[in-house]
Automatic annotation (TrEMBL):
Its main location: nucleus. This is DDE Tnp4 domain-containing protein. It is found in: Nucleus. GO terms for molecular function: hydrolase activity; metal ion binding; nuclease activity. InterPro entries: HARBI1-like (IPR045249), HARBI1_dom (IPR027806). Its cofactor is a divalent metal cation. Pfam families: DDE_Tnp_4 (PF13359). The keyword ATP-binding does not apply.
Length: 356
């Protein structure tokens, strides 16, 4: 029995013609520029916020994790993946813009940023760490003492808000901070040379600084006496304990004013670090339009890259071109948290600053 195919599809002639006429978009490979060769050192830093030496060091550390097994279909080279990610950090633009800069699609740019950020974030313990030996503790104490003669300090702690897009779901409003936008409240401990020694980048913007610190690993280490009688200087958003000291909100007398002047200057490195970090990687100021887990990886990655740059004496970020950063938004509490009994602040006032 012969059946004429046209009789089976009399009612769907138009759909069949559209299917027959459909043509898949042609596969194209865009030209990719060798940015390592094209730009001199100054222009390279302007575009990628890091020197060529630092980029090559980072590439050597993550090459195996971001390389592909073969070079079929003009696979993207590891150096191009790293440069695309750095360009995304340096501009804070959309992924499609970063992809166009290197000649890849938006979907490829998304995968590359996630892959490279995760690979670098895994180096966290290699570049972000607190002192481990008595010699390192003594060196930090001497460095902080040289700033404003504040004794026993080994770190300056503070939190900063990194703007993100709404993560969605039932818990999305937890990420809305008191300024009204969605953010991650990121805690860092900084050394006098602006290096980040500890970072916590998992708490939503509505969480208080003291809550983040109380649940952090560094709090447990301080309580257990890992660094002896060492101190960490903080602002008035933290609670005075035997290891955390803060300024007086209403100092009374010359001694407390002298103490305030010393501690404010001593904790200045943490504020400077946030300024350098957000100036070097404007995406941290302009906001992250990524998934929550990827945003956390990006924050840690930027901190690692900052430390690597500091190791290469690259403390000053290059000037920004055609990028307008919003003003720094400092979120502090308006009241002083009650001191614990036997807090280190009263001991310093009684035994050290009263004798200066």
């Amino acid at each position: 029995m012969n059946i004429q195919p046209n009789l089976l599809f009399e009612d769907d002639d138009e759909e069949i013609l559209e299917f027959i006429n459909y043509r898949r978009r042609p596969y194209t490979v865009r030209d990719r520029i060798n940015h390592m060769m094209k730009w001199d050192d100054h222009d390279f830093r302007m575009r990628f916020r890091l020197s060529k030496v630092v980029v090559e060091q980072v590439l050597d550390l993550i090459r195996d994790n971001i390389s592909v097994e073969n070079q079929w279909n003009c696979a993207i080279a590891p150096i191009d993946k790293l440069l695309l990610t750095l360009r995304f950090y340096a501009t804070g633009s959309f992924l499609i813009t970063a992809g166009d800069f290197l000649g890849v699609s938006k979907s490829s740019a998304c995968v590359i940023v996630r892959t490279v950020s995760t690979a670098i974030a895994r180096l966290c313990h290699q570049f972000i760490y607190m002192p481990t030996t008595d010699e390192e503790v003594y060196t930090l104490q001497r460095s902080f003492y040289k700033i404003a003669r504040f004794p026993r300090a080994i770190g300056a702690i503070d939190c900063t808000h990194i703007r993100i897009q709404s993560p969605g779901g039932h818990n999305a409003e937890y990420f809305r901070n008191r300024k009204g936008y969605f953010s991650l409240n990121v805690q860092t401990v900084v050394s006098p040379d602006l290096k980040i020694m500890d970072i916590v980048a998992r708490w939503p913007g509505s969480c208080h600084d003291q809550t983040i610190f109380r649940n952090s690993n560094i709090h447990s280490q301080l309580v257990n006496g890992k660094w002896g009688n060492s101190l960490i200087v903080a602002d008035s958003g933290y609670k005075n304990t035997s290891h955390i000291v803060t300024p007086f909100i209403n100092p009374r007398g010359n001694i407390e004013e002298l103490y305030n002047e010393s501690i404010i200057r001593t904790r200045n490195p943490v504020e400077r670090t946030y300024g350098v970090l957000k100036r070097r990687f404007p995406i941290l100021s302009l906001g992250l339009r990524l998934k929550l887990t990827t945003s956390q990886a990006v924050i840690v990655t930027c901190s690692i890259l900052h430390n690597i740059a500091c190791n290469n004496n690259d403390l000053e970020a290059p000037d920004l071109v055609d990028v307008v950063l919003p003003p720094n938004e400092i979120i502090n509490v308006n009241h002083e948290i009650m001191d614990e009994e036997g807090c280190a602040r009263q001991q310093l006032i009684r035994e050290y600053f009263s004798r200066l």
